[in-house]
């Protein structure tokens, strides 16, 4: 190949006489030897371990820069003609031939793998992420690690690309870059990629480039996930550690302030908010993981970073939640009769605050009397019998148009969502009016600026202006509990019906 042609112009031909050493164990060196003629022996700790002849290639570790210290003595048995290739020449041409660089990168890694990573040499156990991990788990972790080898200038991770590995630098140095600008340095012993190996953030926002030859210990996300099967407590511990680290990055906003921004809690006293914040837990969910599931204890959560999706039975998407949005207020207040049909799933990696119902109630008991009375009054105002929900659906022009039977109305009810609102809070924004039908179950709502009041049990209808349908925002006039029927949920319900009925309902839906 052209690469071989280039380096062959720079090799040195040397002759070694019998008993002459080509290199000596413990000394430094950067050359590789190619035996063209003759026989030589290899000694380690003074003991002969092998004998080699014409065609043998020795010293790859030195020329690749994996080690400057010779690990063996090479001694001529007969007169030997040897070609010597030194590291600077090798590296110069390697940089010009990317394919050969990848090949020798693999060769270097293969040589490194001959020295397996032990518990003593495992750099991961020294990292913050694994500081509190179980010893047995760490022993297993050592067995999953592998080695990678990067030449000077090579990208270890590249900004904007996907990565599912965590790296620790066993030997060498690297620089961290953002948009091609160096923003930091990494020395031997440093590690990076915690978010990637946990599957939290696999698209890289920075590049890491080797500034010296790097011998890396590497942990794969897939190997770690496999370990989690046998060590679920470790998974929980590691995710909690990363969640806490991410929460520290948002430390300028306290849990008190976050909770106080929620409409339901904006009138609560500082003492109660403080009691609630002591009961919160910061958690982290990967893409596709459930944040809220019906079998679990009723929970309130607030999204700090990322986004999630509210789904109804069968995985039907109802709406998305973004940073600052909350879900589950109705559940922790004990007002969510329809919560058993809902789940919330992360659609990006999601950092969120969570407070369980039992912890929420304890916080209310520990808080001030005024806040406790306020929430108690709010809850009492919004308690409604399950029959009211069915009656609200029965009165819906849409349901009447579909001519649903009582048993079907009960089934459709399980595809609905409930929520509670404080006075002045937007119940239904204009952009959702065409996608959602809403029913006031308790309290009163007002449509737009017309002050058209929607009473308990009524359907929220579009307003008219000069004969044209308009869809202004709907706001709670008093503490308000609302039942929502999303169009997607209705369509999914229709699809679940027997064939003959399904086609009939589809025909009627098309005429709505």
TrEMBL record:
Keywords: Ion channel, Ion transport, Ligand-gated ion channel, Membrane, Transmembrane, Transmembrane helix, Transport
SUPFAM superfamilies assigned: cAMP-binding domain-like
SMART domains per the UniProt record, alphabetical: cNMP (SM00100)
Annotated ranges, domain Cyclic nucleotide-binding: 1-94, 129-245, 290-381
Gene Ontology CC entries for this record: membrane
CDD domains according to UniProt: CAP_ED (cd00038)
Regions annotated as coiled coil: none
Membrane-traversing stretches: none
Record localization: Membrane
Record's protein name: Cyclic nucleotide-binding domain-containing protein
Organism annotation: Zooxanthella nutricula
Lineage: Eukaryota, Sar, Alveolata, Dinophyceae, Peridiniales
